[in-house]
Amino acid sequence: MTGTTIPAAKPLIGDEERAAVDRVLRSGMIAQGPEVAAFEREFGEQLVGGRTCVAVSSGTTGLHLGLLAAGIGPGDEVIVPSFTFAATANSVALTGATPVFADIDPETYCLAADSVAAAITERTAAIMPVHLYGHPADMTALGALAQARGVQLFEDAAQAHGATWQGAPVGSFGTFGMFSLYPTKNMTSGEGGMVSCATPEVVRQVQLLRNQGMERRYENEVVGFNSRMTDVHAAIGRVQLGKLPAWTAKRQANATFLSEHLEGVGVPHVAQGATHVWHQYTIRVPQDRDGFAQALLAEHGVGSGVYYPIPNHQLPSFGLEFDLPVTREACEQVLSLPVHPSLSDEDLERIVAGVNAVAKAGA
Ligand SMILES: *Cc1c(COP(=O)(O)O)cnc(C)c1O
């Protein structure tokens, strides 16, 4: 194999981001200020139907503060998927509540309502689906379940900026929804998170917790954190927000091309009424997935990633027993191919040729 490797992910930082950072640095106001306020307003208008958003220092922090603002704490159970990044369950554990793991739908990889229903107990306080890979969870079924059982609904939308379910944007369903702004996500601020809030009370609680429990300086109302976003990061995020629609369209076009041309592997499914924003394009390789990935890289220069190889409940940090067969199989079979907006036509052709050749050789 000659030539360069096509990376699995690639943050896109341009002159506009650099100029925005420079503008903030020259202003002398670097910590949370007018750029953060503008970013929150623009993000809310563009991505969550005008809901009020609160910017924080990371997506994980956004989940943590959102959970605390919603009143989650010791004695509560929150139902989460095990097939996700560890931050989902970590944020629940950090409040003192107990994460309870449920299984996923084999086609969308998002929480399955029947598995969630079976996991509900009298201690269940909330259900927190993840819109995994940029595909929305079934918010109709999960919303109906939450309402019927009198529990709250939260959204981990870390990977799903701009995704919609039955026409409504993710982050507009739950008591709160969280978007990550980490560099490998669909848009970035360097590090950062955005919390979309359902009510003025949740907005105020997240704002208080972000800033040492203060609304007015030195009049601390509750014990809080320093989880503020800086104006430097917000300036990057505002530029990226403007670029997001074109990037999402390119991700969608890339995914369509891949699904039309890949052979011999299981291509991803898009549920009826879902708009997928393709944070990941994830195929299924039923036999020897890791060997498949190695051959793809060594023989064709195509990078790939496994999200996620270990069910979260089995991580050393949790070490719990749950019987989640769909999750277990997904951990063994999933492989995410490059789908990011900087792929060229030649890159896409090389990914298709590579995957099809490796699939044929292994068949
Ligand atoms: C990235 C991610 C997070 C955490 O976001 P950070 O900004 O990295 O803290 C949480 N949940 C999911 C599903 C993620 O992919």
Automatic annotation (TrEMBL):
Keyword flag Secreted: no
GO molecular function, one term: transaminase activity
UniProt keyword annotations, A-Z: Aminotransferase, Pyridoxal phosphate, Transferase
Domain of life, source organism: Bacteria
Residues bearing the modification N6-(pyridoxal phosphate)lysine: K185
One Pfam family hit: DegT_DnrJ_EryC1
GO biological process, one term: polysaccharide biosynthetic process
Cofactor: pyridoxal 5'-phosphate
Location of the active site: K185
Family listed: Belongs to the DegT/DnrJ/EryC1 family.
Protein name (Swiss-Prot/TrEMBL): Aminotransferase DegT
